[in-house]
Design a protein that fits this description.
The structure is a single chain. It is built from 12 helices and 13 strands. By secondary structure, the chain is α/β, with parallel strands linked by helices. It has a domain of about 250 residues: 3-Layer(aba) Sandwich (Rossmann fold). It has a 7-stranded parallel sheet with strand order 3-2-1-4-5-6-11, sandwiched between helices. It has a two-stranded parallel ribbon with strand order 7-10. It has a two-stranded parallel sheet with strand order 8-13. Strand 4, helix 6 and strand 5 form a beta-alpha-beta unit. The chain is globular and about 55 Å long. The site of nicotinamide-adenine-dinucleotide (NAD) has 28 residues, from helix 3, strand 2, helix 6 and strand 5.
Amino acid sequence: MAQQVNNETTPSTPGKLKPDKPHHRFRIHPPHSRYTFICILLSAFLVFLLFSTFNPPPPSTTAPRRVLGDSWGGSHWERLVSKSTRRNSASNKIVLVTGSAGFVGSHVALALKRRGDGVLGIDNFNRYYDVNLKHARQKLLERAGIFVVEGDINDGTLLKKLFDVVPFTHVMHLAAQAGVRYAMQNPNSYVHSNLAGFTVLLEACKSANPQPAIVWASSSSVYGLNSKVPFSEKDRTDQPASLYAATKKAGEGIAHTYNHIYGLSITALRFFTVYGPWGRPDMAYFFFTKDILKGKQITVFESPDGGSVARDFTYIDDVVKGCLGALDTAKKSTGSGGKKKGSAQFRVFNLGNTSPVPVSKLVAILEKLLKVNAKKRVLPMPRNGDVKFTHANISLAQREFGYKPTIDLETGLRKFVKWYLEFYSSGSIKKGSSSW
Ligand SMILES: NC(=O)c1ccc[n+]([C@@H]2O[C@H](COP(=O)([O-])OP(=O)(O)OC[C@H]3O[C@@H](n4cnc5c(N)ncnc54)[C@H](O)[C@@H]3O)[C@@H](O)[C@H]2O)c1
């Protein structure tokens, strides 16, 4: 995971990188001529100009490549926004999808558009992982008629503008700083997107009129060090093992507050290790594939007691169905313009596969599909935030909106490997790629 990220560009405070301030240590020693004094003043001014216009490299996980106001606004931009959010006559939904250039966001946005909903994306295209992959997903969305606004969810002015232009009925909030281990390198990126950004988004939703219903991605990581399996929504979630998990857990608390005070209808979905075509390069199934094909050694972790590490791998299409099910059963928010008018729906669902698979089995399937033997080394799992296993109880989602995962790991990985080989051999997306 960490290898995706350039440590040198990691900011301590995302989005807040500022150039070093020059130290002005000029002292005028008389007697100097008036001319020398003017020269010194001029040089000082030039030095000041140089430093104040110096543009620092963009931080690795927040990527406002353009200056605020440059990348959005204007009549052309508004036309793109309006066109993207046009819906079919049969649909009653206009959905803002945050993190739409991401793995899950791009799949969900396309599924919504395909069935006729109005869809607008927003993404900051940060550099946590290969930004070309995000742009390739964006291209697919554009081809389907979905406009992705380049912006950060921390930009309250932009969000207000979007809600002024479009009466969104729903927000599918999938933008976040994902990944467990990266939190040890860049903790502030988690605070920036998962706490501050989420709050700015909820502020915009609460003030909107009409208020949208919100469905957002929490994570199975909130179950932390729990050992009771399968994980049920009723289980305790107060022992996070990583900062990522802690920000998702805090997000659930923040969401509850906005539901309670402002009448926002909010549904949290706890995803369990989502995988599939167009996936995330920082996830094991993805970088194992890359390294096995390159003949590079891969590290497979086992738990400290020598047991296997297992994950409830969930195929992307199953997760998309769960997201749409949650969206379709979400009740309306009850407030308007920042005022609560009655109590509103608040829900939490697991979206997993209910069949954990050891990571060693994942590797064996990849070896079979890639027809290459992996060079493995087995090491005890370091304390970097990962947990030993995850296993979802999905009966609540099943009852509420018929959630029923159907893709087993081998079938799903076959689809992933097909996509991977196509995408990386052509170096770009093929028109009409079969992976969607
Ligand atoms: N993929 C999984 O296995 C998994 C598991 C549990 C939870 N989740 C959650 O699901 C959601 C989607 O995950 P994903 O796997 O698609 O991750 P992803 O990193 O591919 O997608 C997230 C997208 O959000 C964007 N983003 C991040 N911060 C932003 C900000 N401040 N403003 C605007 N855009 C921002 C990123 O550029 C990225 O494109 C996330 O909330 C993640 O935490 C994912």
